[in-house]
Write a structure and sequence with these properties.
By secondary structure, the protein is mainly beta. 0% of the residues lie in helices and 52% in strands. The chain folds into 2 domains: 173 residues, no CATH class; 162 residues, Methylamine Dehydrogenase, Chain H. The two termini are 17 Å apart.
Amino acid sequence: MRCCLAACALFVTGLVFASPSSGQRAPPHFHQTAELVLGGEGGWDYLTFDPGTGRIYISRSSRVDVVDPVAGRVVGTISDTPGVHGVALAPKLHKGFTSNGRDGTVGVFDLDTLGPVARVRAGSNPDAILYDPATDQVFAFNGGSHDVTIIGAGSAAVMRTLPLGGKPEFAAADGHGNVYVNIEDTAEIVAIDGRRLDIKARWPLKGCEAPTGLAMDVERHRLFVGCSNKVMTVVDAKDGRIITTLPIGAGCDATAFDPQASLAFSSNGDGTLTVIGREGADRYAVLQNVPTKPGARTMALDPKRQRVYLVTADYGPRPPATAEQPRPRSAMVPGTFTLLVVEAN
């Protein structure tokens, strides 16, 4: 439901957010401003925003669509990415990386031409993928083999495959060589030392079921975990202490953090985008649940413009259950794949 925050002070980037009548800056109010129909076949998974070009990389099952959100159209394609889940970008190396879940590889492509550069063997079903500029390494988190393949971004050589003890979901880096990943089936965060290539710590996520999205406030060492039981858990990245939990929508598959405005976001498959603000030292509050569209469960953030990009599509009726398919999935209506734009006033 669309809502506004009234009369309570919120600290964002050192300023107090309050009601307009107080003379202090009010918190940003988000709303959906556009629906851009992109079309094309195939489902989708993660979105990656490139702040240098303003383009969005969208995983589409067997390819990656490169989208110009201003023009509202696909401007390029990265092909031969079977079962692609995510994209990681290394602008200083002019390279990008795809996690190809179906064939257990990481694809390396040229950021300028979008053409292939190399292919690296990973584990079973690489899902989330992350480039860490502090170590110049790519981390491919393998959902099937429950490990992470660490790859030298420049050499495309495997540095190490590190067991994680459970199914990894999403990851975040702190810019100092530390990488954090959600473990979905054990409800933990694993902290990885990217320089030593080993595990530093394992932290249980009490009260968080099947964690999915993960984002980080690097300056304050806070992790924002999207949980399948409709809560966001805020965790201290230094010691794993749980700071607080907040309600979010159902079906979260991604979280994001805006360091300029100190806002955390949860994209929810129930058709909402939860916006959370920092009230002060380790105090957070839900500011809005912005209406989006059902199925818009993943997102990418442009913090400079305070825009959130989400994708979804229309689906036909669910087919009847059978012995072979007790929970059949509805088919996507052709031509309805859509990019949603949510931004602040």
